[in-house]
Structures are given as C-alpha cells and as structure tokens.
Amino acid sequence: MIGCSFGTSFKVSVAGGSYQEGLTSVIQGIPPGLLITEQEIYGDLLLRKPGADELSSPRKEPDLPLIYTGVNSADTIEGAGNAFMSNGTPMTILIPNLDRHFIHVKQYQDTNRTPRPGHASYASFMKYGPCDDAIGAGIFSGRYTSTIVAAGYVAKRVLSKLGIKVFAYVKELAGVACPEQDCSTALASSENYKRMRCDYDPFYQEVYVKGRIKNEMRFLEKTAVMAQIEQEIDKIRDTQKPMRAKEIREKYGVHHILNCPDVSAAEEMVKACTKISDGGDSAGGIVEVLVSGVPAGLGEPVFDKLDAELGKMLGIGAVKGVEVGAGFNVRNMTGYQSNDRMHSEGGKVLFDSNNAGGITGGLSTGQLIVARLAVKGTPTIAKPQNTIDKYTLENKALAAITRRDPTIVARVWPVAENYTAMVVLDKMIAHLGYQALRAKTE
Predict the structure, then answer these.
(1) Distance (Å, rounded) from C-alpha 238 to C-alpha 394?
(2) What is the radius of gyration, based on Cα positions, of the chain?
(3) Cβ atoms of residues 276 and 174 within 8 Å
(4) What is the spatial distance between Cα 331 and Cα 323, in angstroms, rounded to a whole number?
(5) Are 154 and 30 in contact, with CB atoms under 8 Å apart?
(6) Over 80: is that where the pLDDT of 58 sits?
(7) In the chain, what percentage of residues exceed pLDDT 70?
(8) How far apart (Å, rounded) are the C-alpha atoms in residues 404 and 178?
(9) Which pLDDT tens digit goes with each residue over 127-163?
(10) Segment 304-320, tens digit of pLDDT
(11) Per-residue pLDDT at 324 exceeds 90
(12) Residue 111: is its pLDDT beyond 90?
C-alpha cells in the first residue's frame, strides 16, 4: 500500500487498522530538545475518540498512545536534564486497539459480503481483493485519523514555539450554523473545551493523573499497564463524572458535547443531529480551522501552494470539500468585492478584509489563515439501503447493525486542526531554511 505518507520536511507515515493490533505514526522533522509526553498527546486523542458522548460511536477505545522511539530514555550525561526529550531521530507513536471483541468482529463478518453504501467497502475490495482488511474497514475506518491527531499534536507543539496557534471548531451541524466568531473568542472557547474534556475523561484521570503510566517507565512496563486497562475499560468508564451541561457551562463557558464557541448554537446542533439519528440516519456539517501568527511568504508556488496543501485534507475520511477564505462564495463576488485591499498604518501592512483566507498565490499574507471542511453524514446508518453481494453481484438490502456515529463532524475537528498543523509546520521548516539561505546570499 502506498499513499500513507505525508510531508517533505516534516514527514509522517501511518499504518494500522481498525481491528488490527493498533495504529502507528512515524514522524520525522522534530527538532531535538522538546519534552513531549504521552499524557499531552492523549489530551488531543481523547477529543476524537469514540464513545465519549451521544454523538459518537459506542466503541470504547481509550486511544492511549505509547511513544516507542524518538526520545531519550534517560539523561544523556548525568544531570543533563534531557531525559524523555526529543533527540532529532524519528518519533514512533503507537496507539493499541483495546476494544475489539469477537461479537463486533462477527457483525462485520456477517455484513462484509454486502458493501456499505457511501463507504470504501466496495472500492477497497476491488483494489485489494478477498484479503482486503474489511473488519472495521481497516485503514479506511475513522480510527486511522488517530494517527493524524497524534502526529499533528507534535507539530502544534513545535509551532507554538514559533508563536503560531492552530485550532478548529464545529461551524455547522445538521443544518444549524454557528454565528460568526472573532479569532480570540473562538480560540479561548476551544482551549476551555479541551481543558474540560481532560478534566472529565476517566482514562486521562485514571492513567495519567493517577500515574499508572509515567515517562520513566520502560515500554514493556507500559504495555503491561495497557493489558490491565484492556480488562478494566468498562470499570474505568464507569468512574466518569456526569457531564452536566449547566455546571460545565458555568465553569468552563463551553458546551458539554460540541466544541462550538456559541453554546446556544451548539445545543441546537445537538438537538437537530439527535432528531436525524433517531430516524436511523446521520448528519453532516462544517468544521472551521484557524491559524494565527503565520509570517507572510509561507508556501511554495505551483504544485506546493499552501492552500493546495490544505486542500489535501480531502484525505480525511468523510470530508468532501475544503475551502479557504470566502471559498465557493467568490462565485457571487466581483473582483473588487473579493479583493483584500491593503493600506499602511504605523509601518505595518493592514488588510481591509480577508476573503483570501490569509493566502494569495499559494503564499501566506500574514493574515489569519481560514479553512473550512464540508463533512458528510456517517455512511454507516440504521436505514435499509440497496447494495450488492460483492462476491456474487446479487442485489441485496443492507441495514447496518455495527456500532455507528450519529455524526462524524463532532470528531473531525481535532483531525482537521492537527492535519493543518502538519501542513503549516512542513511549510514553515522550508520557509525558515529558504529565508536563512536568502539572508546568507544577499
């Protein structure tokens, strides 16, 4: 299989599948000297994992990461203080699958002759044949996005050192839209939402706050804890504090289910999505990603334009469209209306608007980068659908019985956020190198 690698300077290769032993991210391009912990990475992974609320699949995967390579196992010399810091070599992050039981495997075996409409089931069978990893859809499952979140978190850590912030939120769900938000409000809301989810996640509390897994433990010690947790999943889940909407809103200022900066809009989104799900169907929506602090000139012309690279987020499962800035709305604008006119003020270049989404000619302008993703409804639904037997080509009817998400939108935003971070860091490394070379040769 090819197509599972990303990047030029910040490079990521992913592997694994929904019901294989787990998933893996191998990351190159991380500078040495960064203290990156499994607890931090899990803080992002828990944002997309299933089973967290009524809008996600009931699968109970903890998504606990294990850093296998790329960090120092101890101080390089006594008292150096660089134990567990990145050392410049490729970092490998493993995400074991812990919630995979025969009852669920059997459900896939019973339905895998009949491809799920809207899913990769048929196309992947035609490509890979009878040995296609069809249990849980393999690498075509949404579970593979955990590898993007893990790698993207590392990218965000590097970007934060450069003053660049990347964040995302649910802009629209089930036809209900969030009113326009300014960047600072959306950022503060997103950060508060992430803090709330860590505070309420039972695995975060049990594994990291209680110290069952620590940096100084060896890999095999950590895997032994993972084996224990696999037997304790239900017990740990039962320790979760009730997520009372009013209490969470008063303490954190966020909605208890959706990362949407307008709490009232979020509540209407949940109601609309639940109504659709109760009818056996699923809902789509829009995720918005914002990037602040990017210098002007980031990106490369022609094939490696910054907005073209962001367009590769079509590689995220269920994403059917990516737009930057005004996006498809430019079709109804004149050139004068869509142009972002400039003026100078106090020695700085300021723009009157940002219809370009912070990118012109494939290069960043120094403005806020704005991208939006159109996410379709979950293909796995509870309504009868026409399909075929992929072995005999007989016409069949399919009613899904596997675990499913009422919507994927609520779990796609952290994937989009971290994918964007990978794109920006990849371009930033090249940009810094080019500018340094330019300064040396002028």
Answers:
(1) 45
(2) 22
(3) yes
(4) 13
(5) yes
(6) no
(7) 95
(8) 25
(9) 888 887 777 777 888 889 999 999 999 999 999 999 9
(10) 999 999 999 999 989 99
(11) yes
(12) no
Instruction: Determine how β-strand 285-292 pairs with β-strand 369-375.
Output: antiparallel
Residue 185: strand, helix, or coil: helix
The SS3 of residue 344 is strand
Q: What is the pLDDT of residue 128?
A: 87
Give the separation between CA 203 and CA 217, rounded to whole angstroms: 18
Confidence bin at 400 (pLDDT 50/70/90): low
pLDDT, tens digit, 9 for 90 and up, residues 76-104: 999 999 999 999 999 999 999 988 766 77
C-alpha neighbours within 13 Å on the C-beta side of residue 58: 5
Strand order in 22-28's β-sheet? 5-6, 11-16, 22-28, 91-96, 66-69
Task: Quote the CA–CA distance of 124 and 120 in Å, as a whole number.
Answer: 6
Residue type, 64: L
Largest CA distance in the chain: 72
Nearest to 287 by CA among 422, 100, 420, 432: 420
* Mean pLDDT in residue range 192-197: 97
Token pair for 293: 């602090």
- State how far the Cα of 154 lies from the Cα of 375, in Å rounded to an integer: 25
Structural domains of the chain, ranges and CATH numbers in brackets: 5-441 (3.60.150.10)
- Answer whether residue 402 shows pLDDT above 70: no
Q: How far apart are CA 38 and CA 110, in angstroms?
A: 37
Cα separation of 297 and 306, whole Å? 10
Coil, strand, or helix at residue 65? coil
Give the C-alpha separation, 321 to 286, whole Å. 9
Contact call for residues 26 and 13 (beta carbons, < 8 A):
yes
* Average pLDDT for the chain: 92
Look at residue 3 in the predicted model and tell me its pLDDT.
Answer: 86
Identify the pLDDT of residue 247.
97
Query: Strands 319-324 and 385-388, how do they pair?
Result: unpaired
CA 360 to chain centroid, in Å, comes to 26
CB 83 within 8 A of CB 74: yes
State how far the alpha carbon of 298 is from the alpha carbons of 323, 344, 363, 431, in Å.
18, 21, 5, 6
- Both tokens of 95, joined, read 């995400």
Give CA separation, 427 vs 292, 301, 305, in Å. 15, 12, 9
Nearest to 130 by CA among 109, 116, 101, 144: 109
- Collect all residues with Cβ–Cβ distance below 8 Å to 116 and sequence separation of at least 6: 379, 380, 385, 387, 398, 400
Q: Report the alpha-carbon distance of residue 17 to residue 4 in Å, rounded.
A: 12
Query: Are β-strands 385-388 and 5-6 bridged in parallel, bridged antiparallel, or unpaired?
Result: unpaired
